[in-house]
Amino acid sequence: MSDPAGEADAPDGTADGDEDAASPIGGLESPVAALCDRVGDPATAAVVLIVVGSLLLRTVQLGGRIFHWDEGRVGYWILRFDATGEFFYRPIIHGPFLPVVNNVLFDFIGASDFAARLPVAVVGGLLPLVALLLRHRLRGREQVALALLLAVDPLLVYYGRFMRGDVLVGSFALGAFALAVYAIDTRRTLPLFGSATLLALGFSAKENALVYLACFLGAGFLLLDHRLVRTARRTGSPLDAAVGEAVALRHFLDDWTAGARTRRRIAALVRERDLGAPWAPEAGFLGHLAIWIPIGAAGVAATFLGVVAFFYAPRPELWNALGLGNLMSGAPTPDASVGSVWYEATWGAGEKFWSTWASGTHSGHPYVPYLWDILETLAYGSGVLVVLALVGFFADGYGETRGTRPLVAYATYWGAASAVGYPVATDIQAPWAAVHIVLPLAIPAAVGLAEVGDSLRGGFASGDAVTAALAGLVIVSALGGVVAPNVDYWNSASADDKQVLQWAQPENEYKTALRDAAAVARDNEGTDVLWIGTSTSRGTRLYVSEEASVDRMPPGGPSWHSRLPTPWYLERAGANVTSSPPEARFDGLPSAEEMPPVVIAKPSDAEELEPRLDGYQSREYAFRLWTERIVVFIDEDALADARE
């Protein structure tokens, strides 16, 4: 992550001069010039403009795609949290960040597909700002290229418009890493507290933040080993290499603490006791480290644990422990101690995580199919970025006499480890896992994009038509490889895009039926929706024996989850829902006079249902992109009244 021995390996992007003002692919010069006078740096101005575009790309028509199965599940429990004030960590729906944040957000702007996805869109949209934190490690063009790739990569865009924790945890982890690098480069301690906060937010978004920690440590070990081997080859002695690293670390810490008041004060006290003490500077240095390393470490750890505990703490117990129960819930609630809440938010949450995810009950799948699935997603969703990452890694290693820069090598090792590890870490074949590979590879990809841009400009400047043509062809291909998928995946719910979309996604047209069902439910008295339970080769579907069981987590059975994402839309409408058991079949249905205005069933039951639903219109939709379908019957008179 760092290179204490050699700042020469870390080009300062702020010192490249006017040649770095241009975008790596051109086209940003005019808006950059407009901002340059205000911010004082062309690269920074370009990154700011890219962030604006990134936010727009993720928020425009954000509610256009119907909720995915996972979005519907988490969204429903956020609505119940909002209604009851009760929330506790359940590992199966991952971290509490989205429930806690969206519960507040819904109170301000209302519950909707747009509002539910907005936190992910905003965090993903701001992600290109990490390029500015790496300014001491990347040249100006490379900063702009990194921001651009993080803004427009199709996989990051699609899942940046999706209410899941993957883009959140990935963005927070990358931001934490960048802040740590910035702290090292600027010799400042305060950014480490920001890094701890972002890492804690990552843990609150999804538990695979642990995988990021493993990748950080693994990539750091490989980078250190790389440096030791390189030095040992030069000196002919592994011991000399180890001693050299220790000396480099000493110089790095000496530079970090230079001018610190504590260090100066300790040195002055030593001189007061012994006027001729030649070791006073060393005493000041060691004394400063002895005091501030424990204090700093404790502060960073407390920051991390405080943020984690806030999100993982059960509600309303947290507010009760803080004496805010009546204010937050509006009604008296049972007492809770700070100690019990702290235990549940830390050790208790850890035990739940271990028993659900780390115990091995969700693993044991074959490796190769999962690896192939992730590689296929990378090829279709982020193929341009992966190719540029390879270009950047080799260009950085072979194009510079000093060898690959530590940051580029570290990010490449991190991305490679993620590619190897995530087929093991993930419990289902899900394309969103590829996000965690794309994020670190964006750094070498930025180097590759800047290198191609340099080749294009150099070819034109020198009259080398072949180089210019090849570089231009690469840039045009990259543009096509980014623009076309983004246009295609924008709000896609089509099986044609199955390499990037996850299978539990309904088609968008189903949302029309849900809007009509919600409108009918708002005007209807009594039961609004009847689910027709059925038995399939995969078990009971659509039936819940006790509908009141879905008022709090976990839901009763046997098959509430088979209705998702529909409960999210019906709960928002305040619909009164019931279901018929599979064994009752059609003889157990309500009479025509008592039949709810909305009936939902599997296609296999629709043919027998239709004669019993006189005056109902029937609509069939893809309920899962390539495995299931659903039929919605809506009373035409009730719908007409609702529309009026």
From TrEMBL:
Transmembrane segments annotated in the record for this chain: 114-132, 167-184, 211-229, 289-313, 377-395, 407-425, 465-484
Pfam families per UniProt: PMT_2
InterPro entries in the cross-refs: CHP03663, RgtA/B/C-like
Keywords: Membrane, Transmembrane, Transmembrane helix
Domain Glycosyltransferase RgtA/B/C/D-like: 94-231
Signal sequence residues: none
PANTHER family (alphabetical): GLYCOSYL TRANSFERASE FAMILY 39_83 DOMAIN-CONTAINING PROTEIN, GLYCOSYL TRANSFERASE, FAMILY 39
Protein's name in the database: TIGR03663 family protein
Record organism: Halobaculum gomorrense
Lineage, highest ranks first: Archaea, Methanobacteriati, Methanobacteriota, Stenosarchaea group, Halobacteria
